[in-house]
Amino acid sequence: MMERPRYFTPSEVASHCTSADLWVSFLGRVCDLSPLMSRYQGDVLLLPIMECAGKDISNWFDPKTKDILKFVDPLTCCERYYTPRGRFVHVPPNGPCSDWDSDIGQPWWKDRRYEVGLLSAKTRWIRILNTLTSQEQLLEVCSEETLEEILQRFLRFNSHARSYTWKHQGQILDMKKTLAENGIMDDDLELDQLRLDRDIFIPTILLNFNDDLTEG
Predict the structure, then answer these.
(1) Which end of the chain is more exposed for a tag (fewer CB within 10 A), N or C?
(2) Which residues make Cβ contacts (< 8 Å) with residue 28, sequence separation at least 6?
(3) InterPro entries in the record, alphabetically (predicted)?
(4) Phi, psi (5° rounding) for residue 106?
(5) Rounded distance, CA 14 to CA 24, Å?
(6) DSSP states of 29-58 as a string?
(7) Tell me, what's the pLDDT at 103?
(8) CB contact at 8 A, 134 and 204
């Protein structure tokens, strides 16, 4: 059985924005380039990547070929990679170069070893209310995530989250399904069209305490 990919919000990607901990997203993928930064430490070709640490760089790529954008050089009539921020690691030079190592294997943007997950196509805010303690927590989640995966996110706020029954409008939620599959629809577009404040209409999930406590 194929393992489900892990989804990340743009804000999660943005939190990895140092040379020692550098993530980027592109074409729906999230990649941890920290090993690349370590391998080529001190190389000037890392600068364009460092400038975009924690950001989405889909505009660097052709969505059809999944490769770096290309153009035809008007002077040489040769096809070149389009890198307006400057050439970066694994992009070949425009001309003959004695220090260019062509034996790099897969360039980093094609190397699946750097991939840590997928970027959510749409994130949502939910309100989780503990009916036992009246504690309330706002949580940004990925629309592709199941309730079980959302629970994993919530564990840092309540390590006993599995000891609760998750409900919405009186209905017990299926933890193997997404919010939408549980009937908790994303009304953001409709709210925007009606010029209503999204924050007022954040859906609330109620946690009802069970008898047993799971280990923290």
Answers:
(1) N
(2) 118, 119, 121
(3) Cyt_B5-like_heme/steroid-bd (IPR001199), Cyt_B5-like_heme/steroid_sf (IPR036400), Cytochrome_b5_domain (IPR052320)
(4) -75, 130
(5) 8
(6) EEEE-HHHHHHTTT-GGGHHHHHTTTSB-G
(7) 64
(8) no
Whole-number pLDDT of residue 8: 98
For the chain, what's the residue count? 216
Per-10-residue mean pLDDT for the chain, 216 residues long? Answer: 88 97 98 96 95 97 95 84 91 68 81 97 97 96 98 95 95 97 95 93 95 55
Single-letter amino acid, residue 102 = S
pLDDT at 214: 53
* CA nearest to 51, candidates 84, 82, 76, 8: 84
SS3 call for 21: strand
Cα 41 from Cα 31, distance rounded (Å): 18
- 182 contacts 150 by C-beta, under 8 angstroms: no
Is beta strand 7-8 parallel, antiparallel or unpaired with respect to 115-119? parallel
* Separation CA 59–CA 115 (nearest Å): 18
Global pTM value: 0.88
Specify the 3-state DSSP secondary structure of 204.
strand
Q: Is 205 helix (H, G, I), strand (E, B) or coil?
A: strand
- How far is the C-alpha of 78 from the C-alpha of 176, rounded, in Å? 52
Q: 103: helix, coil or strand?
A: coil
Residue 73's pLDDT is 82
